[in-house]
Amino acid sequence: MDNIALRLSPVGLLRRPETGALLGLAAVFSFFSIFGGDNFLSVAGVAGWLNVASSIGIVAIPIGLLIIAGELDISIGSMIPAGSMTVAIISGYFQEPIFLGVVAALALGALVGFLNGLLVVRTALPSLIVTLGTLFSVAGLVLFLSVIITGTTSVAIDAGPTAKFLLGHFVGGILQVAIFWWMGIALFFGFILHFSRYGNWILAMGGDRVSARNAGIPTERLTILLFMSSGVSAAFVGVGQAILFNSAQVSAGQSYIFNAIVAVVVGGVLLTGGYSGTVEMDGKIIDFNNPREAGHCGIATVHQFGGTFPLMTIGRSFFVGQEPTRGWGPFKAYDRRRANAIAVSAVRELGITRINDGDRLVGGLSGGERQALAIARAVYFGAKVLILDEPTAALGVKEAAHVLRIVLKARQKGIAVIFITHQVVHALTVGDHFAVLIRGIKASDFRKGEKSREEITDLMAGGEHMAELEAEISSYMKTHGGHSPHVGANSADITVEM
Asked: CB atoms < 10 A from the CB of 408, how many?
């Protein structure tokens, strides 16, 4: 109850990322209510700005998801007229059924989105560059085909009563039907983002794409799907405009690029947005195609910064990629209460008693607490082998000691721990079998007690090479009157191969 009261308190509400967007909305609405004249709040005035906002909103919602995931799509500026011209040419110029024209327009949007996503994930080019190229390519192609096929850049269309009712009429004579499509799309994507595992995956991708992939999230497939949703939404707006105004133009849609991005940013979205391996396990050779397959076999990895997501809550970060749900069939929703309770319990079992609220943002935790959260997650999901990559590198002495205690607790639970570190003291504290790698090659393999701390340190520092360097310096000093090598000395005087 205390945690709930804290979240509902003024201080707790101000910490929520949605608060800034809500306050901005209130400020803008108040400004125009006062200075916008009497028409702003009249029925006709409300209908006027809602009609404009609906088309922008339909495009902005999937763009917002893309930005959350760390990508951007500006090709929507060409996809809107492309959708309009597609349906107008097929169902207006060629007089084919309107259903066929609408499907073709939406399919074109999906195709362009697929190409955008595929190019982004395959070339690793920034999505801004990829979609900028698509923007001009699609615009040129639409103009070319329109002139070649119809001989003009404007095509009339008579969609018929059914299509007009669904996509292009005014409800009550003043409200465009697009407003209700906008509301439905907002509810759908809102459910996806906040109550499904896919929303959790999108948030994770925007927080740390590498960690998301290592958690087993299909980042490439999800990126392509997000671009496809953006293309389809832009084509849908184009179809609606063609049916509403009974014509299509090749030049419409460029303003949506700026307006959609502004809507997303003002709405509170931040603009910051391995290879397969082969191992032997239980006496069998197993090939892993992705981290999820390794996780199913009980191999978990915690990276240097914990593999956690600063802008996500503890509960969401704990279950990212494996979200608990409630409900049935297509109505399953993310079970936030269960996720929070399990996450807090698992972390507290490892000795982190300061964490008692699963809705707390991971970004507010200390480095040691983030490591504990990542380790607790691995232990909870049945890890047999826990790989820790430099877990104490960025921590102070006190937090590093706490992480080491957590590692010992994991060992006591029967979990094999591979502890990667350059801190000899930390390795000797928790390890019993050691391997020293130099440039990816195993330089030494020994058990606890077989080498001293000094010997291990010397080995890690390249002891043989350091001894050669000391011998060459000594030889130099003997032949140069006891003087040490100075900066700019002839490179032939001292040669060290590292």
From this structure: 12
